[in-house]
Design goal:
It is found in: Nucleus. This protein is mostly helical. It has helices at about 15-35, 45-65, 70-80, 85-90.
């Protein structure tokens, strides 16, 4: 997740409508980064950061692709400035990845057996009553 960089370039028209929400998510992200990690497993410390990163990217994605509320220029500005993850949004546009939680869940090199994460297995294929929790981001199952 890249840090949000602010360029000197003027934001496009419509920026003032989405800026408060993005600033609020940015403040939550900074708060999650500064939060203490006492009593948590090593991997659990990053879960809130992944969750907020997902929310921010999903917000921009839905504004542009679902609701068509922002212009292409503003969408590109958000991607270039680091407000949304370009690669994650590219996956959301593909069939089967519409609700993907993070890119680490589909990278086979991050798992023990060279497959995708357990959260990508459909709930109908899992044992009844088994609680699934992603090691990377804390997702409870993003395959549907």
């Amino acid at each position: 997740m890249p840090k949000v960089k602010r360029s000197r370039k003027r934001p496009p028209e419509g920026w003032e409508l989405i800026e408060p929400t993005l600033d609020e998510l940015e403040a939550k992200l900074r708060e999650a980064e500064a939060d203490t990690h006492e009593g948590k497993r090593k991997v659990e410390a990053l879960w809130p950061i992944f969750k907020i990163h997902h929310q921010r990217s999903r917000y921009v994605y839905e504004l542009y692709f679902k609701r068509k509320a922002i212009s292409r220029e503003l969408y590109e500005y958000c991607l270039n400035e680091g407000y949304a993850d370009r690669n994650l949004i590219a996956k959301w546009k593909k069939p089967g990845y519409e609700s993907l939680c993070c890119l680490r869940c589909i990278q086979p090199r991050d798992t023990n057996f060279g497959t995708t994460c357990i959260c990508r297995v459909p709930k109908s294929k899992l044992e009844v009553g088994k609680i699934v929790e992603c090691v990377h981001c804390g997702c409870k199952g993003c395959s549907g």
